[in-house]
Write a structure and sequence with these properties.
Layout lengths: L25 H4 L5 H10 L4 H4 L12 H13 L5 H10 L1 H7 L6 H11 L4 H14 L7 E10 L7 E3 H26 L16 H14 L7 H28 L5 E3 L6 E4 L10 E12 L2 E8 L8 H12 L5 E4 L6 H9 L3 E4 L4 H4 L2 H5 L9 E3 L4 E3 L7 E11 L5 E10 L5
Helix pairs in contact: 2-4, 5-6, 5-7, 9-10, 9-11, 10-11
């Protein structure tokens, strides 16, 4: 270029408003290896017969459930969970447009689909996807890696029901009823029979009502203090209704948990990993168990238990029942270590790579030295059926006791332990 000439900036041409004789198709704009094509191909092979049964014939036309399922799955893959944001993506993203064929269901349609129709059929669809991944060799159901996490429920943190509070209140009513009965016996023993309320194994609305009526009949013509009359009137008006409320609350709570949220009865109050206030506040939530292989989720289950130990068995039972394949190996952390879990895994011929809860503690020599008479330091002689303490002295079995533990779905398991008297050298 000649000296003295200046350089000028060159821009590429912008043809925003120029018409195209042959407009590009959406298929040309989506790369062949884009994840949206994987979602499309996988869900095209899924049987949605159960999902189709959720629709009733007649009325106006509906969006096809397979299209809605594809849009929902692809939105979740891209961390989009809000129904309004999914609606926005359907109108703006070429990948959503390609996946749905330019259909634009609104947020109400998306919410109804995933909240009503998809809720009962999600597990079978998920199972089919897992089996398809197995056929492609992307994961194996023979080796599982299991862990759990707590997910906070969308419920009020301050409206709750505690099982311990119910039991305390019922015990207090029983005690006060027993005091009234004893007072009535001291004033009118002849009018009362031997039905002592303190002997009730279970106090309920009918028993309390009948007992209060007997006490009122016995004290009708007797000289009774105003305080007792007031207490009897309060008990007659309030205790039956309160006990009826407690019975309904206990029915909602069930046997396997100790609390629930009034705004979400399925949620149990438990400790969460996210504790921003650092005060150990209990929050309503769910215990979600997930088994993975090759970084794919192979199965999941939702529980109300506040700990992981009692949910390993029901989680694996659901895995075997839904997928029809028994794993050969299960790996989990020490939170799942228990005698019951080890026995169940051994019975099912599943190799367990599960540490017991005190494994890491036992590896520390300083901690081990502080407990010279811990259980693992006792020696057992199988021929003589006898234990020897760390000092080498024989232990004498003086009896046994039975302990009942809460396990899956509140089912109780009975465990037997031996009590042994310490030897003279100990």
């Amino acid at each position: 270029m000649a000296r003295g000439k200046t350089l000028s900036v060159v821009f590429k041409a912008n043809h925003q408003h120029q018409l195209m004789a042959f407009p590009p198709s959406l298929d040309e704009l989506v790369a062949s290896d884009h994840p949206v094509r994987v979602v499309h191909e996988v869900l095209e092979r899924v049987d949605i017969t159960l999902l189709l049964k959720q629709y009733k014939p007649g009325g106006t036309s509906s969006y096809h459930p397979r299209m809605l399922l594809k849009a929902l799955v692809y939105a979740y893959v891209n961390n989009i969970y809000s129904s309004r944001k999914i609606e926005q993506a359907l109108a703006e993203s070429i990948y959503f447009m390609w996946l749905t064929g330019m259909s634009k269901p609104d947020h109400n349609t998306i919410n109804r689909f995933r909240g009503q129709r998809l809720q009962k059929t999600l597990q079978p669809i998920f199972t089919q996807v897992v089996l398809l991944l197995c056929e492609e060799g992307l994961l194996s159901l023979k080796d599982l890696y299991t862990d759990g996490t707590k997910i906070e429920a969308n419920a009020n943190r301050y409206t709750f029901v505690w099982g311990k509070a119910i039991r305390t209140s019922k015990e207090r009513i029983k005690q006060q009823l027993d005091e009234l009965w004893k007072y009535a016996q001291s004033v009118a023993a002849a009018e009362l029979d031997d039905t002592d309320p303190s002997g009730f194994d279970k106090i309920d609305k009918e028993k309390v009502t009948a007992t209060i009526e007997k006490i009122n009949q016995a004290l009708r013509d007797k000289k009774v203090t105003g305080k007792v009359r007031q207490k009897l009137n309060y008990a007659r008006k309030n205790w039956p209704a309160v006990l009826d409320k407690y019975e309904k609350q206990e029915k909602i709570m069930g046997n396997g948990r100790s609390s629930y949220s009034k705004t979400d009865p399925d949620a149990t109050f438990m400790h969460m990993k996210e504790d921003h206030m650092r005060n150990g506040q209990l929050k309503p939530g769910y215990n979600v168990q997930i088994s993975t292989n090759n970084q794919y989720i192979a199965s999941y289950s939702i529980h109300s238990s506040t700990t992981d130990t009692p949910v390993l068995i029901p989680h694996l039972e659901q895995h075997i029942r839904t997928l029809g394949i028994r794993p050969n190996n299960v790996t989990a952390d020490a939170g799942y270590g228990s005698e019951q879990n080890y026995q169940w895994l051994e019975k099912k011929r599943i190799t367990a790579y599960v540490k017991h809860p005190h494994f890491d503690r036992d590896q520390n020599k300083n901690l081990r030295s502080k407990k010279p008479y811990s259980v693992d330091k006792f020696q057992y002689d199988q021929q003589k059926d006898r234990y020897y303490c760390p000092a080498g002295k024989p232990m004498k079995n003086i009896g046994s006791y039975t302990r009942t533990t809460k396990t899956k779905a509140g089912i109780a398991q009975t465990l037997t332990r031996y009590q042994a008297k310490k030897c003279a050298g100990c």
